[in-house]
Amino acid sequence: MARRVVGGVGRAAGVGGVGGTTGSGSGVKAARRPEVRLPGLEPFGGGELEADGDYDGLDFREADFAGQDGGGARFMDCALTGCALDETRLLHARLLDSVLTGIRGVGTNLAESTLRDVELVDARLGGVQLHGAVLERVVVRGGKIDYLNLRKARLKDVVFEGCVLVEPDFGGAVLERVEFVDCVVKGADFSAARLSDVDFRRAAELGFARGVDRLAGAVISPAQLLDLAEVFAAELGVRVE
């Protein structure tokens, strides 16, 4: 779609089952959240990441992995806290049953990676590449992510909670049981995306740049519908005067 349509929606208190994952009788399937219970962890011994490395039960704390290549690496039962991931290459990596807290970086490459049973907390990321990735039972809580690239990714049981997403790109992605809770979404692109049981009702702010014609399978609140009226009208080519 060549033209650009922009909309912003503020949250209306008491609408859409606030206080639970879904509204009563809404028929929207709730996302299954991860239940990560880390074992006793061993401190990471230092050094650079290794391509195809196997990291199990490790505590990565304030590590600087900027510019390193951990493509194909597997992280299982790990905690990454305050780590720097600027331009870190983690293509085809697998993050399983792990908690990432306060990570930061620009240009982190997680393309075609797998995140399963992962909590991402208070991240500060820009231009992170997750195109073609698979996210299953993932919670993104707090923090801010600019220009998140999820093109052609598969998201199942994913919750964005209390975070800020600036111009996230879901183009061509498949989203199933995805929730946006108390988060700010600015300029989202859903071009060619496929949605099923996607719940926007509790978003604190909701704005679309492209792809509003692909929102079948999503649910919004009555207040959001009113606020998005001009966006939907623009998509239909209707003038509002």
TrEMBL record:
Highest taxon of source: Bacteria
Gene3D superfamilies with a match to the protein in the record: E3 ubiquitin-protein ligase SopA (2.160.20.80)
InterPro entries in alphabetical order: 5peptide_repeat
Family annotation (Pfam families): Pentapeptide_4
Keywords in alphabetical order: Repeat
UniProt key word NADP: no
Entry protein name: Pentapeptide repeat-containing protein
Organism from which the protein derives: Streptomyces lacrimifluminis
